[in-house]
Amino acid sequence: MANLSLLHSFLPNLAPTPFCSFCPTTHADLFHMAIACPSILKIWESIWEYHFIYTPFTTNGLWLALTCLRFPSHPPYNTSPHQWIPVLSTTLLHIWRAHWAHHFDAVPIRPSIIIQAINAALVTSPMLPITSLDSI
Ligand SMILES: [Zn+2]
Description:
It is built from six helices and no strands.
């Protein structure tokens, strides 16, 4: 997974600055681009709170889930990896698409639109049990 800081070091014409386009003093490293940028964080928090209601959201918990497949546990309401993986992978895919559409095509990042697209994709996902999407 590329990040803007890395892209800037190799292809400065494509990425003239290593800083986040929304946070001008923050290096756009992988953690920032994937999780911590405020508009991205809003998406993760919304998706997480809806799909994993019994597991408190933390950026560290999300980072470990994305990078190590270590999913947070919150007994007695543990969530199966069969629910974690499709939700996290679908969310990351949509965030990544939105990020690069913004970077290369100046498409604004609108968290509410992206959240709708994620949930719409999850409704048709064969990987996710229907019961977790009942109220969408
Ligand atoms: Zn940012």
